[in-house]
From TrEMBL:
It comes from Streptacidiphilus pinicola. This is MOSC domain-containing protein. InterPro entries: MoCF_Sase_C, MOSC_domain, Pyrv_Knase-like_insert_dom_sf. Residues 22-171 form the MOSC domain. The lineage of its organism: Bacteria, Bacillati, Actinomycetota, Actinomycetes, Kitasatosporales. SUPFAM superfamilies: PK beta-barrel domain-like. It comes from the Bacteria. One of its GO terms (molecular function) is catalytic activity. It holds the Pfam family MOSC. Gene3D superfamilies: PK beta-barrel domain-like (2.40.33.20).
Length: 183
């Protein structure tokens, strides 16, 4: 089975529902729950809009990962965006997160493992953070299809600590690969 490697550049969490998450030296992932000490920790949905719609939904958004290359693109366009600023828990470099199939598994550091569930659906709050920034997070391809670039979501399969500098190893699922869709 083919594998790819990359690295964690930052980790973030917040105990409060807000937009940005402060960087911390390390986070601990808890199987079936998410990031210890993060407001989105839980077996069922924790995002406010999803809780309002149906609080019994499974939490397929336990961990939010974003590629540092998107931050680079935003800075090149004149925006001041750093790791954690868009609410991600884990910032990566050197890995095409958006190109991963559903069910891909990321091994982070020595022990933690996350299974990818889908794409983050960028919301208008991004423009509240910095006006006009949403256009860099969602757009359309040459066929007119919506392209979401604001990172991916996953569920924790195996506990473990994750720190900046940790290696990320990708294990692709067997069989036909299913492209990511919003979760």
């Amino acid at each position: 089975m083919p594998t790819q490697t990359a690295a964690v550049t930052a980790v973030s969490r917040d105990t409060e529902h807000g937009f940005s998450k402060p960087n911390v030296p390390a986070i601990r992932l808890l199987a079936g729950l998410g990031v210890e000490g993060d407001t989105h920790l839980g077996v069922t949905v924790q995002h406010r809009s999803r809780v309002a719609a149906d609080p019994t939904q499974p939490n397929l958004r336990q961990v939010h990962l974003m590629h540092a290359e998107l931050h680079d693109e935003m800075r090149a366009a004149g925006y001041d965006v750093a790791a954690g600023a868009l609410g991600e828990n884990i910032t990566t470099r050197g890995l095409d997160l958006l190109g991963l199939p559903r069910g891909a598994r990321l091994r982070l550091g020595a022990e933690a493992e996350v299974e990818i569930t889908g794409l983050r659906n960028p919301c208008p709050q991004i423009n509240n953070f910095q006006p006009g920034l949403l256009k860099l997070c969602v757009g359309r391809d040459e066929d007119g299809q919506v392209v979401r670039k604001a990172g991916i979501m996953g569920v924790v399969l195996r506990d473990g600590e994750v720190r900046p500098g940790d290696r990320i190893t990708v294990e692709l699922p067997q069989g036909p690969h299913v492209p990511l869709d919003r979760v």
